[in-house]
Input
Amino acid sequence: MIIAVDGPVAAGKGTLARRIADIYKLDYLDTGALYRAVGLKLLQDKQDPADTAAAVTAARHVGEIALDDPALRDEKTGEAASVVAANEDVRAELLQYQRNFAKREKGAVLDGRDIGTVVCPDADVKLFVTASAEIRARRRFDELAAKGVETSFEAVLEDLQARDARDTGRGAAPLKKADDAHLLDTSKLDIEAAVNAACKIIDAA
Ligand code: DC
Output
C-alpha cells in the first residue's frame, strides 16, 4: 500500500500524512525533509546551494543526514531547500531514495510536491491537500507566533505566495495535482475532520 500526499506549503499535509501512517501502520517519509537536509548540509559546509556538483554530492549521501535535526525547519534551510529542489540533477538523485523507501514491504506514506505525479505515479491512493493562501498563511503565522518568531501576517502571506509560485512554476517536477488524485481542501476542516475525510477516501480505495 502506497499513499501519496501532495500539496502546497502549510496545507496541513505533513500532519495529515503522519496521522494516516499511524492509522494504517505504514512507514512515513517527509520528502521535503530530504530537500531541506541537502540544503542544510550545503549551508553547514559553507557551499552554495546553487552549486550543482556540491548539491548532487550532498543528495547522494542524503541517507547519512539526520532528518530530525531541528535546524531543518529554519527559514534559511527552507530557502536553500527551495534552490536545490529546482535542480533537476538533485531531484534525480533523491528520486531513487524516495522510490526505495516506497518499496518497503510494510507500505508507505510519502508527502511532498511530486509524489503522485513523479515519485510514485502508481500509488494506491493519491491525495492532493490544499487550502486557500490566506488560511495557510494564518496557520503558518500562528505557528511562528507560538515559537516566538516576530513577523506580520502580511509578510507570511507574501512569502507563502512566492513559494507557491516557485513550486508550481519550476520546470523540474512542478507542484501539480495528479489527474487521479483526490482533492482535499482543508480550508474549512480542522485536523480531525481532514483525517476523517482522508480515511474515507483510503477505505474506499
Ligand atoms: O515541504 P517543505 O517546505 O519541507 O519542502 C522543502 C522544499 O522542498 C520546498 O521548496 C519544496 C521542495 N520539495 C519538492 O520540491 N518536492 C518534494 N517532493 C518535497 C519538497
